[in-house]
C-alpha cells in the first residue's frame, strides 16, 4: 500500500515538472520562409597567427598593372609607342596635386633633344600628320609652347651624370645647389619628361655608371610628380646594345613608358644614322622628323591615357 502511494506521488511530480518545462520552452511548428529569417552580425575571430594580418590595410589608390609585359631582354620587340600603366597614372595625379602643369612637358638629355631636331616642328608649324594621326592634333594644341622649348636640362654633350651636377646648371636661373635636372623641374613644373641620354666616353665609362645615374634621374623626376618617358637610341656605338638594355630594364622596373625609337629607326635608310657625319652617334635629318612624329604619338598615348582614366 505504501509502495503504491509513493509511486503515485513520484508520477505526480513528474507531470508537474513537464508542464513547467513546456511552458518555458514553447515548440514552434509554423514554417518560416527564407526571406523571413533573421540576420545576425556574427563577429569574425582572427587568430593570433603571423600568417594573418590582424591590422586593417589601406586600399591602394590604383590596382597594380597586370604584368603581361615583355621582359627587358626582349626590348627590341617592345612597341614603338607605349601605353600608360597604372603607375604612370599615379605619378601624373601626384604631380597635378603638387601643382604641375597638365599642359607642359620637358625634354631632358643631350643634343639629340634640341628643339630643332626633336619635336620643335609642332610649334613651328609646317608638319602634316598622316591618316590615322589626326587625333594627335589635340595633343599638339594641349602642349603648345613645350615642343619648341629647350629648357634647362638639355645640351650639347650633357650626359646623365652632368644632368645632376650644379656645375653644369645655368647660373642665371638655377639655384646654387641645383643641377640642370632639378632646375628644369622647379622652373617648368611639367607633367611629362622625355629622357634620352647617350653613353659618355664609351671606352672609359662602365655601363654600371650609366645605370646608376639614370636611376637617380628617373627617381628625381618621379618624386617631382613628373611622368618619365624613356627613349631608346638608334645607335649601338658601345656594342651589344648595352645602353638600350639598361634603359629597358629601368623602364620595366619602374613601370614607366618607353618610347622605342630604336625599333622605329630600323625602317629608315641606314637605320636612321647620319652617313655624312658617320660618327656612329648622330642621326639623319630624316630621322629627326620620324623621331619627332613617333615622339608626338607617344605623348598622345600617355597624356590621353592618364587623363581619360
Structural class designation: alpha/beta
Number of strands: 4
Query: Residue-averaged pLDDT, rounded?
Result: 82
Shape: globular
CATH hierarchy: architecture? 3-Layer(aba) Sandwich
- The first-level CATH class name: Alpha Beta
Low-confidence stretches: 1-61
Order of helices and strands: HHEHHHEHEHEHH
Question: What this model shows, in words?
Answer:
With 309 residues, this protein is of the alpha/beta class. The protein has one domain: SGNH hydrolase (Rossmann fold), CATH 3.40.50.1110. The protein is 37% helix and 7% strand. It has helices at residues 2-24, 86-98, 121-124, 137-142, 180-188, 207-223, 242-254, 261-265, 285-307, and strands at residues 101-109, 190-196, 227-231, 258-259. A 4-stranded parallel β-sheet has the order 1-2-3-4, sandwiched between helices. The longest helix is centred in the first third of the chain and has 23 residues, at 2-24. It is globular and about 45 Å long. The model is unreliable at 1-61 (pLDDT under 50).
What order do the helices and strands come in, and which of them pair?
Blueprint: H1 2-24, H2 86-98, E1 101-109, H3 121-124, H4 137-142, H5 180-188, E2 190-196, H6 207-223, E3 227-231, H7 242-254, E4 258-259, H8 261-265, H9 285-307
Parallel strand pairs: 1-2, 2-3, 3-4
Helix pairs in contact: 2-9, 6-7
What key attributes describe this structure?
single chain, 309 residues, alpha/beta, Rossmann fold, four-stranded parallel beta sheet, 9 helices, 4 strands, 37% helix, disordered N terminus
Question: Can you give me a brief rundown of this structure?
Answer:
This protein is α/β, with parallel strands linked by helices and 309 residues long. The protein is 37% helix and 7% strand.
